[in-house]
Amino acid sequence: MQQSPPAPLAGVKVLDLSRVLAGPWCGQMLADMGAEVIKVERPDKGDDTRQWGPPWLASQQPEQRGESAYYLSANRGKRSVTVDISRPEGQKLVRELAATSDVVIENFKVGGLKKYGLDYASLKAVNPALIYCSITGFGQQSPYAHRAGYDFMIQAMGGIMSLTGQPDDTPGGGPVKIGVAFTDIFTGLYAANGILAALYARDKQDAASREGTHIDMALMDVQVGVLANQALNYLTSGKVPQRLGNAHPNIVPYQAFTTADGHMIVAVGNDGQFQRLCQVLERSELAHDERFATNGARVSHREQLIPELQAVLATRTTDEWLAALEAVGVPAGPINTLDRVFDDPHVKARELKQQLKHPQSASGKVDLVNNPIRFNGIQMSAQSAPPTLGEHTDAVLKEQLGLDNAQIDGLKALGIL
């Protein structure tokens, strides 16, 4: 491994008031890039996802439950501080932390932090240069602004479920959600991009008069935004796209096929690849049939073409077809379960599984998924495990607010920490 250069966000301080996934995913991205991310949590319970299991990380104390896998997925590289923000003393602590922060991330309901004096206007008054990112279901101004927003609900409302799954008239037909919290994760990534742009814009200003930004992120906006080519299929044609299972609306053949021992993906992206596919299948005449010679023609005649390809692909095993197609440069791949994913030579070579020390793990370590971004060959992943609840409360309050042991103990006695 090469020696890591200075992290790109070293020196940036982030106060993360968010919980569940979209906000924490954003915070983890910033931590991976080197920002100091202080995660503020409720005393005793903490982030909701600490309770979202099983599975749980095996604990050193068999009678105690370890951290949830869900929580571990989104909180690497942070420092956990427990503060009761419903109490004036807790609000004061958070305001003091925000006064020296570059970024605040929060995902409370619209207006939910105003009563605590922790909304953008209140914190801007103590730190005009603050970048304040609000993540909600429907944004700060919307007919639905008062509603809570959850990924599953937003996948339904934002159209992606109408595009995912088998057609209604086939076995198992009907809308299906994506297998991970797709909208939450994309919202976290968009939020991180917005924060980076806001930091760049702020830091180009005169140091004495820098002003921050209020970033308004809505899960619904993001879900509509990532409809991508399917949104344009509708906006361009006026026709509502329908579910095609594992097929593609704009490219054929670009879908799953059954083989002699399972399934595989064939992803033909141009006419040359289609010609080579037909050669491997010993059906070269299909490439010269005017119904199939171009992608546009294949899209129009998919119902005639796909059965012809499927009949041949069913005659040999997945591995046999993959070897033959790779040899001629036709994109194809297996449909892996997660055990096979993490055993894949590419995943191993790219070190996409990360192992970090964890103080409560039975093995002393925790397995995580590395950040896929690399700078000059160096992976941008924080090197500290997701924190235990309140693990850094004392240290942060001493370092950043100058509190002493007696003051911290007094706050703990009052239930503030």
From TrEMBL:
Keyword Transferase appears in the UniProt entry: yes
Protein's UniProt keywords contain Metal-binding: no
Alphabetized UniProt keyword annotations: Transferase
Annotated stretches, region: Disordered: 44-65
Cross-referenced InterPro entries: CoA-transferase_III_domain, CoA-Trfase_fam_III, CoA-Trfase_III_dom3_sf, CoA-Trfase_III_dom_1_sf
Listed Pfam families: CoA_transf_3
GO MF: CoA-transferase activity
PANTHER family: SUCCINATE--HYDROXYMETHYLGLUTARATE COA-TRANSFERASE
Protein name, per record: CoA transferase
Lineage: Bacteria, Pseudomonadati, Pseudomonadota, Gammaproteobacteria, Oceanospirillales
